[in-house]
Amino acid sequence: MSINKEQDFGTPASTEGQTVSLEIDGFAVTAPVGTSIMRAAASIGIDIPKLCATDSIEPFGSCRLCVVQIEGGRGMPASCTTPVAEGLKVCTQNPRLADVRRGIMELYISDHPLDCLTCAANGDCELQDMAGAVGLREVRYNPVETHLHAVKDESNPYFSFDPSKCIVCSRCVRACEETQGTFALTLDGRGFDSKVSPSQNQAFMDSECVSCGACVQACPTATLMEKSVIDHGQPEHAIVTTCAYCGVGCSFRAEMKGEQVIRMVPHKDGKANHGHSCVKGRFAFGYATHKDRITKPMIRASIKDAWQEVSWEEAINHAASEFKRIQAKYGKDSIGGVTSSRCTNEEAYLVQKLIRAGFGNNNVDTCARVCHSPTGYGLKQTFGESSGTQDFDSVMKSDVILVIGANPTDGHPVFGSMMKKRLRQGAKLIVVDPREIDLVSNSPHIKASYHLKLRPGTNVAIINALAHVVVTENLMDETFALERCDVASFEKWKTFITQDYHSPENSEAITGVPAADVRAAARLYATANNGAIYYGLGVTEHSQGSTMVIGIANLAMATGNLGRDGVGVNPLRGQNNVQGSCDMGSFPHEYPGYRHVSDANTRALFQQAWQAELSPEPGLRIPNMFDAALDKTFMGMYIEGEDIAQSDPDTQHVLAALRAMECVVVQDIFLNETAKFAHVFLPGASFLEKDGTFTNAERRISPVRKVMTPLAGYQDWEVTQLLSNAMGYPMNYSHPSEIMAEIASLTPSFSGVSYEKIDELGSVQWPCNEQTPVGTPIMHTETFMRDNGKGLFMLTEFVATAERTNQKFPLILTTGRILSQYNVGAQTRRTANNAWHSEDRLEIHPHDAEDRGLKNGDWAGIKSRAGETVLRALISERVQPGVVYTTFHFPESGANVITTDNSDWATNCPEYKVTAVQVSKVSQHSEWQQEYQKFSENQLELLEQGMANG
Amino acid sequence: MNKIDNLIKMANDISNFFNADPDKELAADGVAKHIMRGWEPRMRHDIINHYQQGGSGLSDLAKMAIAKLIAQTKV
Ligand code: SF4
Ligand code: SF4
Ligand code: SF4
Ligand code: FES
Fold it and tell me: Nearest Cα to A210, choosing from A447, A449, A446, A444?
């Protein structure tokens, strides 16, 4: 293995189809129109010296190291900014060019510290490389003034900024602008005085910088440098794998020194991220080796007992015998489990297989229950497949982008950057959100044409109003609807949506959005050449989540915005593998590939392959498991990589259910909140310790590769296999590729997927089968995936949520997340990302705060019908009066103590986005928080006792 | 919320969606199918039981649907 650096072509690839032919140093080259001479040369192995150019950003032409001569041309043009042309004869090396280059390098080096031997970039410095390449042997200048004493900025926890080494090439500035879209860096001054700095000469941490690291990656010197490289030295080999945080699924090169990850570098060939990343994927990997990792299996009889460290064999046998005992006592259906959206496809598949075939029931569910289950339902009903319709790159062809209930710059940052790039190119933006997300007006050079700032819980009324305008103003693409969709359903829907009560004027009283804005937004979307919809949990986590997804699908079908590049309906899925875990049959009513358990043919197929009798009845969903536990009919649970005690709504209900069970088995990397209620703890492996695949929000199946030995000895799929064997249901896989082969053999949309293919293509988007051997970037291009090939319109009546405000609970609480922390925070809280967000706060509008005598930083008591918690107040005009907002990354916040058990009608996805609350000024934590803190401390003591005895 | 109240609420919520269909027979079919395909047998059993004891709290459409569910289960 070697570090095998990715080639830098100097400038981005041209997207033109037409090519030209030319000669470089006597070699014939053909390149697309618009390609730079530098890139054309690199494509045939001729590396022209360069400093200010790199292929992730547009060329700038400042260093002039890349000069060339063109036969018959004048002077020495910079090859990074000069495009190829038919018949050119280019010379990249001759004595004159060499002289010029040496002169340039001499100037650079005269103002550069000559500490190469002890510099952290030694071996990975382009300045050093170029000095070698141009044959620099002496520096004749002895400048009076230098930058050698410039002060370092160490404020960012992950990288340092040493301006004494800066060559002012502006690669960082351009990376921040073009790749990330944050515009945090500026290049000030002229000549000797020119320098790079964050914002107005601020420290990085005080600036707008979001720590994406694009500038660090672009910097050719040691000026911007990962602290991990400074501490540990240069990595020596690299393995391509996939980020385990969010549903963007960025591809990374894990750059290693032995078994230690030195840095994660976003992979240029990654088709989801094209070499970009966010702070989490690039920097926040330290949790994998955090001291809180539990690496020994543990058991205990009751949650009041100390944990006891035991061998794997003992822990597995104990779990299996408990499950068998419970089934003997309470019946076959009294146990079940949860697959993880953090784990691989192969692992999710194995857990559901264990439950269906080994436990003999369908009591399997997954965390998608609490996030995108309405997407699964709504898109399956209307389009015939439970997934988004586009690849991420499609957004670069969109003309109007409608973002509903999503915050891409925080939740899906790398895709957010791509979207921002398209918006800066001129695409129009409509945002539908109760809160002013950054895209609305807080992102440089971007402004939403319309922000429909609706009241939480009125999504369906807005989508109906938009559709009403489209139909009544005849902005439909009737040809598309009539040819591609079920005509009867289209006609019925038109009659429904035409009714006057759906008009923007009539729904204004419900949504609070001015009718004129709704009309204008509808016109903008419907008349765009390419209109694309992106949505997130602000759509799904409502009592009408599924209705809203259907409403979105109706709107896209009615306007013909489906089946080609630049359009579509795109759920921005939360967790790294939430798409995959759903695809793998994690829902209680569906086998892998979303086929219903009552379908006799499919069941026969699985029975045959799995050699087991399978139940034709749907199993329990997570909330129903809790109800059944309290009812004493569901007494044992196998939970892989999920923290339901923290992530599920109505915490007190969840905890009561967990306490009621006789055997809770938690498989995780940390003693998470759920594990505090467990009887068996099976230590899991982080994504760095396993092989497998993740599937991102664009249905892209990407490789996850083991870069270090599992700390506890086993990968998670191996643990499930051990448990299955102990339960008496044999499993004998020796590698996850065998599991994928089984998935492919049983699932039509995966039939063409294999590890060989993923290795060959880098990643592949399902459906991937005989008809689409290299996968499907864009779905429904010819027909929809429904049985008759037609899209189905469905009626979407607005029904107000039962969660109403009143005098006692006059405010609406809505929830979300932020860039630096990830969901329940189990990983990110154990990294330096806490520097950006160390506690959850309650955002409240100044008027509401004033009414309650609340000032910034005061403790705010939040009370709902379900419970009470306390957070610090953050006064903000981002929320409208009457609405308060919080994130949910810290267990002690108890955000879910206040969320209720109200849920989506179709899938029981909880209504996290709407809770009626009262807020008041308080002086201490709530009773629940105090009790929970005591409980939690006690559990940590029980853990320590176990470890001390172990 | 206790278990049966929760099931009643779930059945009513499902009915609220399908109620948009002016053809109430179709609407009830939609509700019945949704329950049949999504609810675990214990839950179906409990709601049928509740319906058979008068079905208090259930909307008209939910009642129609549960009647259909019973008929289907018998078949
Ligand atoms: S880390 Fe990202 S956001 Fe921060 S300055 Fe660098 S490119 Fe800009
Ligand atoms: S910090 Fe690095 S990338 Fe930025 S101008 Fe200086 S040398 Fe170039
Ligand atoms: S955008 Fe998502 S997948 Fe990409 S690096 Fe960030 S967290 Fe990881
Ligand atoms: S690399 Fe072309 S001018 Fe710097």
Answer: A444
